[in-house]
Design goal:
Number of helices: 15
Structural class: mainly alpha
Low-confidence stretches: 185-189, 381-390
Number of strands: 0
Strand content: under 5%
Helix content: over 70%
Distance between the termini: 27 Å
Mean pLDDT: 84
Length: about 400
């Protein structure tokens, strides 16, 4: 792959996840500072997941239909920026709901478009995707650590200005992304529904959504949970970064791991470790070293799981279905799964407490383990066995 293209894509991922690294760990704390309850925060934070159910599919269809991806990335980045500016005037549940709905509608669509653009440039990923995605993880770490200490020093309100600068930068960088040339595929004549309704595809999407349901609890309430147990914002930022450092390491190793193990084995191992991670967070929150150990498992529960899922998705959805495939994966896994985790987690936190909530969350990857284990059939070459693309 051309070095300049690699740099442009990596830089975009870095800034996009820089925003995520500032938003995910600290936005719940900002909402808490605005006197929202845990249930309200669960609903507001889940707007991002709910938007991912619908919005990316529209933009994915538009990208595949027009053959353009970069221009729609620029538009969603601009509209996401406009949505965020309105946060400065949003107070009270109704206005915050309206503004966050507008912000999430567009920001949630930028990533699947960028994913399909990246994969189209790579043609066949062969591990290169994980090396580009690694820069996103690095962006997350830098933002999480810097923001933790910045908020400790200058207060939670500084988060708004920080996020605004990042949104402006993301929009500017969207102009550096070149349009890919998408080669036609022999199965372009199949409808998207013929692809989705395959049992293999259904099993993968359900298994992924169950994994992300547990992470919906983590992303929305982990910082609040740690804060309530006496951890400072700086330490919270460092704990988030521990997980993402391990995520980067696994992304760098994924080409070797995929060459040695099947994608299904990677998915199952990741799910098994997720059960352990969430149970440990629930029962041992007061032990810093145990929590650090649990954070290292993010390498598996997100890193290897996401990389393997994307590789399988690219086999199901090829040619003119590529952008729609990434959109559907994001919608079902991160949209439906994340929304269920976020909303249910908010009510669980409010009525049962944080420790029980994280123990409950461990049940979802356990169910995912069964779904993927029995429902997903991949050949030894990691291709679809007996399916449309086998």
């Amino acid at each position: 792959m051309h070095t300049q293209l690699h740099h442009r894509l990596s830089r975009f991922y870095f800034i996009y996840y820089f925003f995520v690294g500032a938003f995910v760990p600290y936005w719940g704390l900002y909402l808490q500072s605005e006197q929202f309850s845990a249930a309200d925060i669960g609903i507001l934070m889940s707007l991002f997941q709910i938007s991912r159910i619908f919005a990316p599919n529209f933009w994915g269809w538009l990208a595949d239909h027009t053959g353009k991806r970069a221009q729609w990335i620029r538009l969603t980045a601009l509209l996401g920026l406009c949505g965020f500016i309105a946060v400065f005037w949003a107070h009270g549940f109704f206005w915050m709901f309206f503004v966050m709905a507008a912000l999430s509608l567009f920001t949630s669509s930028t990533l699947p478009l960028a994913e399909s653009l990246t994969l189209a440039h790579l043609a066949t990923t062969n591990g290169y995707y994980s090396r580009i995605r690694m820069w996103g993880s690095l962006g997350f770490i830098v933002a999480a650590v810097v923001l933790g200490y910045l908020i400790d020093i200058s207060g939670i309100a500084s988060l708004l200005w920080f996020l605004l600068i990042v949104q402006v930068s993301l929009f500017a960088l969207s102009f550096t992304l070149p349009e890919p040339k998408v080669a036609p595929h022999e199965h372009d004549h199949f409808s998207i529904w013929q692809v989705i309704r395959q049992p293999n595809v259904i099993a993968l999407l359900v298994g992924c959504s169950l994994m992300v349901t547990a992470h919906g609890v983590l992303y929305n309430f982990y910082s609040i949970y740690l804060s309530e147990h006496g951890y400072s914002k700086g330490v919270i930022g460092l704990l988030w970064s521990v997980g993402v450092v391990c995520e980067i390491a696994i992304f760098m190793l994924m080409p070797k791991i995929m060459a040695r193990f099947s994608l299904k084995a990677i998915l199952l191992t990741s799910l098994m470790l997720a059960v352990i991670r969430f149970a440990v967070i629930g029962v041992a929150v007061d032990s810093l070293w145990v929590i650090i150990l649990a954070q290292t498992l993010h390498a598996a529960t997100f890193g290897s799981f996401h990389a393997a899922s994307v590789e399988v998705i690219t086999q199901f959805f090829k040619g003119r279905h590529q952008a729609k495939g990434q959109a559907i994966y994001n919608s079902v896994a991160y949209g439906v799964g994340g929304a269920i985790g976020g909303i249910a987690g908010g009510y669980s936190l409010q009525y049962f407490g944080g420790q029980q909530t994280f123990v409950f969350a461990a049940a979802f990857p356990l169910l995912g383990l069964a779904v993927i284990g029995f429902g997903l059939k991949l050949s030894k070459k990691n291709q679809i066995s007996g399916g449309m693309f086998g």
